[in-house]
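Crash report, auto-generated. Payload:
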Amino acid sequence: KPNIVTCTAPVNIAVIKYWGKRDEELILPINSSLSVTLHQEQLKTTTTVATSRSFQEDRIWLNGKEEDITHPRLQSCLREIRRLARKRRGDGDPSVDSTGLSHKVHICSVNNFPTAAGLASSAAGFACLVYTLARVFGVEGELSGIARQGSGSACRSMYGGFVQWIMGKKDDGKDSLAQQVEPETHWPELRILVLVASAERKPVGSTSGMQTSVQTSSLLKHRAESVVPGRMVEMIEAVQRKDFAAFAELTMKDSNQFHATCLDTYPPIFYLNSVSQQVISLVHRYNRHYGETRVAYTFDAGPNAVIFTLQQHVPEFVQVVQHFFPPETNGGQFFKGLPVNHAA
Ligand code: DP6
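Recovered output after restart:
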């Protein structure tokens, strides 16, 4: 009889961006980063893992299609979880079902949003995979170091609320872990809107994009060494004070610097499109109109805008967006009207 566990993990949105690795295999970053994890019910991955004595081999299905289980990052996560499970069993923990340890797994994972469109699908995906595998094999405790080996940003989706991924210094990556800065209850007025400019797959994935940036961009080196450390401190303080203007300005500046390092990469990488640029202008005009920072944007490796604002400004800002981007302008593509996500 198979043992079956299903879990969900939400997407996280970085406000201080991770871009660039110092170790490709262990996935160790060149700078720390900070993100906000969405509410469980919004953008999320759902993963079911089954183990059974009768399974011949490990297998995985993503959004209904079987994928290659030999993918190195998948193998790292599977290997690390099994290693921890075996270690606990070796330590004589009776709660670990020792018979299941040698069993093969079948994994099914589905997203409720477009995959690889710059909506951080790998983050929720690997966070969910690692968490679900851990449940199946009876592993507990710190798991962000394993999720990190699936996809860097995934380590931050292991926690809710405001989460930092501390870059760490060690070569073995043992100190490169995610840590909650504030829980999901800390700032209940904060809201996140996702404006879908394109649900297509991105032309340059984050993994290869950041490799080229590390090799060619001196701006990225400057950013990692001299800009991000100070910004991490300021961002954590802004979150703790619930200072929206400070949070918003740092968020926009960090998104802009990330995209500047993409342009500084050779050959350059363009993730923003003309719709993204119009959203940026609109946000600045909106804030200028009120003489205060009420709305912020951030963009990852794709053209879709993620908007941060406070609850009381949501209805008006949504109206403004719908006025300037009526659904028909982009074949109905632009404003998908994804629901207002409660941040964390
Ligand atoms: C722009 O975590 O997808 O979203 O570690 O190679 O899997 P890998 O990259 P990934 O990169 C995310 C980059 C980003 C910024 C961020 O989420 O911090």
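Post-recovery validation: The pocket of DP6 is lined by residues 14, 17-19, 27, 33, 120, 122, 151-153, 206-207, 300-301 (CB under 6 Å).
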